[in-house]
Amino acid sequence: MRAVRIHKAKARQRMGSFARTRRGPGTGKAESRSKALAWKVKKIFDRYLRSLVDEEIKRTKGVVKKSEADKQRFIEQLAQAITISGIREVEDAGKRADPEFKVGSDFYRQFYEQKRESATAMLKETDREFREKMRQFLSQWLTEDPGITHAELARRIRFSFYADGADVLAPGQKPTRGILEPLERGPRITRDVFGRASLVARTEMAMAQNTGNIESIKASGLEYKMWISQKSNGGRGHQEMNGEVVPVGEPFILPDKTPMMYPGDPSGPIKHLANCRCSVVAAPPRRARAYERKHGITPRG
């Protein structure tokens, strides 16, 4: 019998285009930064998902679970990657309005804590999704094949999981885009990590840019801010907000009555944050005067 060769293969890695995800000054740099962050986020998710797979395989063999410290390590890595890229974007956005703009240490700590909370929520959702799929898959496999061995269970778990490259490929078989083809017994356990990383990067860079915009508006002593929405579907249905003006210290009120201080406000719900491409800018003088006339406000000076 001729021996079957085992191949290690590195799948082609492709990240979607980040072109036209932002507009205005600094667009090119923001897009490049988004793409660089997406790759960092993807690598962290890759490692974390692999750790979940290894943990699940050990669980099927009766081995003790991994410690909570391992999860905290991934949370710190994810939060740090997002914070470093985000702070740079905040400073770039702020300096476009005020060349002297700088992020202070208090702001940096607050920003990091926000991103640490976000990273914790992301991995919690990843855990939930993974466990849900694993319960579904294990129930199906054990029902269809009650005599299945631990080795076969481990093989099926690995082959239903997203990976950069195939652990084992048949002779002549080529790797796919980076996602292993699902087993004949069901779909893969996790979602496309490329898509997940792209979404995180786009959202975080847009949030950082608007955070920088609003901080520079405050630092400049301007009184009014204006919401600028994207006309495409990437605006998260915020088209009705385009041109809306409010005082700097007051929230915008979205059509569904959600209050947000600016597009990408971390305190807002995820449905208004994920992949939002809207911007906040200082309201032009004529828009500010129109707001004051509408609300009976006597202009200062």
Write up what this structure looks like.
With 301 residues, this protein is mainly α. It has six helices and five strands; from the N terminus they run H-H-H-H-H-E-E-E-E-E-H. The protein has helices spanning 27-60, 68-97, 105-144, 150-159, 193-219, 285-294; strands spanning 224-228, 245-247, 252-253, 259-260, 279-282. The strands form two sheets. It has a three-stranded antiparallel beta sheet. A hairpin with a 5-residue loop joins strand 3 (252-253) and strand 4. Helix 1 (27-60) packs antiparallel against helix 2, helix 1 packs across helix 5 (193-219) and helix 2 (68-97) packs across helix 3 (105-144). The termini are far apart.
**What is the count of DSSP helices, taking H or I runs of 4+ residues?**
6
Q: What value does the average pLDDT take?
A: 78
* Shape, principal axes of CA atoms: elongated
Give the neighbour order of strands across the main sheet: 2-1-5
Strand content: 5-15%
Task: Calculate the terminal CA-CA distance, rounded to whole Å.
Answer: 94 Å
Helical residue percent?
Answer: 40-55%
Largest sheet: 3 strands, antiparallel
Elements, N to C (H/E): HHHHHEEEEEH
Number of strands: 5
Instruction: Please mark out the parts with pLDDT under 50 across 5 or more consecutive residues, or reply none.
Output: 1-13, 162-171, 175-187
What is the radius of gyration computed over CA atoms, rounded to a whole number of angstroms? 24 Å
Specify the structural class.
mainly alpha
Number of domains: 2
